[in-house]
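Hey all, sorry for the wall of text incoming. These are the two entities for the joint prediction.
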Amino acid sequence: MFESIVSYGLAVGAVYALIGITYNVMYSASRVFSFTAGMLGMLGGVLGALFINKWGFNAALGFVLVLACGAVLGLVTEVLTVRPVLKSIEQHLYVLSTLAFALMVQQVTAIEWGTEAQPFPVLIPIDASSPAGSIWGIVDQKFWLPVLACIVTIGGLEFLYRRTLIGRAFLAIAEDSYAARALGLPETQLRLASFALAGVIGTLAGFTGAQMLLAFFGNQSILNFYGFVPVALGGMGSNRGAVIGGLALGLFQQAANFLVGGIFAAVAVFAVFIAVLLLRPEGLAGAPAARRV
Amino acid sequence: MTDTTAPARAGGMSWLGRLEGRLSWILLGLAGLALPLLDDSYIGTIAERAFIYWVLSAGLNLVVGYAGQIAIGWVSMLALGAYTTAALAAGRVGPEWNPYLALAAGGAIGAVFGVIVGLPALRLRTFYFAMTTLGFATIVTQVALAWKDVTGGGVGTPGPVFPWPFEPGWGFYYLCFILAALATWITANIGSSRYGRALVAIRDAEVAAEASGIAKPRILMLVFLLAGALGGVAGGLFASLQSYITPDAFTFEMSVLFFIAILIGGRGSILGPALGTILLTALPEFAAPLVQWSTFLYAALLLLIVLLVPGGIADLLDFKNRRPLTQHREIVPRIELLPRVLDQAEGGHAIELAAIALHFGGVRAIDGLDLEIHSGEVHGLIGPNGSGKTTTLNVISGYYAPSSGTLRLDGAPLPFEEPHARANHRIARTFQTPRLVGAASVLQNVMIGGTVHGEASFAEAMLSLPRHHRDERHLRQAAMLALATVGLESLANVRADRLQHSELRFMEIARALMLRPAFLLLDEPAAGLSTEEIRRLGALIKAISREGTGVLLVEHHADLIFDICDRVTVLNLGKVLAAGTPAEIRSHREVVSAYLGA
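and here's what came out:
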């Protein structure tokens, strides 16, 4: 039982962490929390199953196509729902515009794909009888794929932000968009790029986690919330915080599931979420800010 | 005395406007009462559904439309109320309850969880609250699926059947109708009371609301309580309407319907959202092929509204406020009215700052400041940009806790607490950039300033009891008087966001006067005013101080400062560069070289 708590918990936790990073990437570029994060996660699974199971593409092509769709959706999100309301960010209209867009996509999915959870294909064919297969097969791929995706993403982002010019430009926008614009940074293009990147990360989370979570339109609201909990725990914009928070959330949830049942797990997660928000609103690792007058 | 009765009349709503509002409600009510005459049970069911949704939306309207809190998952309250009522009435928990009692219990559970879900809204930015309500909706569904003993899990549980007098059929219809009417009545009462204005002020001008003594946490709690209770009651009715409930009945998408109904109707209106709810409930019934796509269409509609008409249809139809205002308006304060506005019996108060310091990280915004403000005096605070003038004002009005030093009021320490507590010490202020509720009338904006003088409780306002009416009458009279004093009474019924900048400055002063302040803190009131307006402003400020109010005036206009101040303190880099009478300051060598210029 212990192994299943750890393997399942880490895998789900990695998906939550990736959705949290999706929130963060969009937030850093625009100060907007977008409800499309969960939608991207949901689509990663649904589109993957559609391309590979229904249309018969091979796994690699399906994977690339799914991420490309994610990037396009990220761009659409920025142009359609974020840019028009940025100038009145104080009114928080983005909450409604991104939510509305996410719901539209979810409804199309529900109607065209169906409201039943459908299986997701095994991505990497592993022959358990061969020596190599037996090594890889010790832990099911549905458990290590999301963890691997999470490691690759966080490594890639670290490299992007610390080693490349465009990554530093992202950081500059996130830190102070006025100053960055004054320096001549193309804020709009960088924001677009960030949303495309978020689209890729979000669908990656859904794609790698879908053997576990299935291709199911209802994953959207679940991922929206459980993906945001790590952000609240780790502090807005902190990707490391999101990873630690996500993994902790996954483990806690699975342990509670196994030990005391699902009702308690759901209630406990919500209680912890509210408690953290009230006691440490800036997140466990964040710093308070704000001058209002 | 004729001069003061005229403005009071102008403040009242026009006779036609009032009838217009009432008339729509009377027509709606009659239509609702007479609907059973059609004897069409299909239409009856649609109407029941609309009433039930409205019971929830009416409460949600206060949260979303008035307070501006984006509660996107309020469907959870519907689910909680439905399961509580159904489970209790069916005897799944203990003995079988009377369905009416079970319905009340549903409301109570809704109220409790409304408050719990609302907790993050008290401290945090809007998005967190939106996310909390979404998360709660997700979790309620999960618990409903997992807690099979009580909810029946995925299989579901039968809804309650109400006995006489509201038995199934038209009896139940009237139960829904009565509760919808009740929900309308109490939320409309709240909306038009000082609590309603306070909610809108929290939405559009939070800091000004706090400075006027509005305690955001307390009032939001009350509203969440009410909205949760209404959601719970709606849930109980919904369970009975559905006759069998499963977790699928409470999809998150339902929240969108409630939400758009409110947005379409317009923020801060009751009738608009009510019509929106009826429309959105009925629409899919008459366009059968669209039922499958209804949520998609609602979401698309939501997106369109947010992008194109964030003010809702009500804003589009607000013709009254598109009539052009008179050009070349003049602000002529009537200082002779001041004694009646301020009504200062006793003077002799003093605020003393001793060695106050405030650091933001390594920045010393204020660095050992001594300052005294006395009743009946104008104290000028000048200095270059960044010298700590506004920060000083923010310390006095309770927005910042000083890092060290003491702040005393009449000799007793004035502790750092929530900014809204300062209003109880009768310390009022204005802001560098005017903070206003743009969508409300000038009169209502000014009435916000007198919120602390109201005596009626939330419950009294909700039930429209006599004390509430007395409050309203007093506030309205006081606000008209304050407006007449600053010279804006002719604009009392104009939307505040249509005013010129200089008029907003005077409106803020009128709002501050509503507190009958012992101390008035003015943050650059002359910025953006013409020379003539500055002269009138100066006369007004001086007259206010002569009524016994201590004034702290932060300003850049040296002429104004030297004209009206009794004492002047000059700040530079957070320290006092000089202090004394205007004459002493004017000849102070360092001040002249650092700030005034030769």
